[in-house]
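Worked example 2:
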Amino acid sequence: MIPEAQWLLERERRSRRQGSGLSEAALIGSWRLERIWSKGSLRPAAFGAALLRGLAARLQLAPDHGEEGGETMRMVNSVRLGALELRFDGVGRLQGRRPLLVFSFDRLRLLLGGRVLIERALPPPDPLRRPFFALIAANLPGPGEPDPATGTSQGWLAARGRGGGLALWRLEAGEETK
């Protein structure tokens, strides 16, 4: 069982007032896109979500031990069709009390069976228009510990994007015991 829009909207109101309490450590993992809601809608965008699930849309977050400085994470946003994968690589960082996961992608890659077909550097975004996810809530129970609110022990993450849409990801199998 995963949360519905109404429940997530209530959690979003609470996170705006009190913060979500999510830390970088809670975000580390491979997240598979499960549902999306258009701005202002309580009904999931069934076609868009089904298409993105069919393309194995995934958000991967890992600690960044590079030279970026500060508390950053490596990010990969990707879709896959068979052996063909389109991926955007970059960095993100938590900012503010809520917090926001502010990110930018610096590299685009097209891979076939793990081999790079095309690789391009991407220009940095305008600092005032950087994309972000406003983190709302997550379910990160330990093994066998269901979330009291949803009754599920599967990990999930909910956030609102810069464009106003709401997204819900599920933690991929094997990532629950990071």
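The mean pLDDT is 87. Residues 71 and 93 are 6 Å apart (CA to CA).
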